[in-house]
Task: structure prediction
Amino acid sequence: MDTPVVLITGALTGIGRATALAFAQEGARVVISGRRDDAGQALVAELRTLGAEAEFVRADVRHEDDVRNLVDKAVERFGRLDVAVNNAGTEGKPGPLTEQSAETYVATFDTNVLGTILSLKHEMRVMLAQGHGSIVNLSSTMGSRGAAGASMYVASKHAVEGLTKAAALEGAAAGVRVNAVAPGPVDTELLNRFMGTAERKAGAAATVPMKRLGTPEEIAQAIVFLASGKVDYLTGQIIGVNGGKTAS
Result:
């Protein structure tokens, strides 16, 4: 469609923010969500300066009532939902598996996995009824590989990739595509928290064949392409955007 309606969770920082800006620059109508009203309204104002119709709906993806309201508000405002980007996520509590607990599991999985399930549920509720839609989930290079000291995050992103494939099969016959983008290390605040030090961050960049971190804007452009009508036959796929990190 010429002016797609796009919903983005976790849109206030990093990849989510860059994705909102990228869709606005493409002329989309954008509904952004997150948990901070001030940041949400500031981003809406920025999107509108780009000429986009934009709205902010406060939502915590861990709570189904919030997710249901977010999707319903988007449809109420713009009449349909063409694209959804499920970006809300957390790094959890990095550390050895022997130091993890039921609490650290819940803290990671409630956002990364339950949040994706609830988002898919309500986005697909609308998209299946209207007979079209494109959903992009955010995974990670760690969604298909292991990483010492990141067990909860690794496990949660494996789950996101499984959910992506299952949802794609459920939506395919109705014209609803579901894919995931799996970034390598990207220069965001999440990575800063995950790595903890500048030295570890530099070490992460050194493991990438291109010898640098990705940028949020590069991931955003991959999401815009994957969500677009240019690849209507593509569904159930995990697209790595990682500077060659998984090439070998």
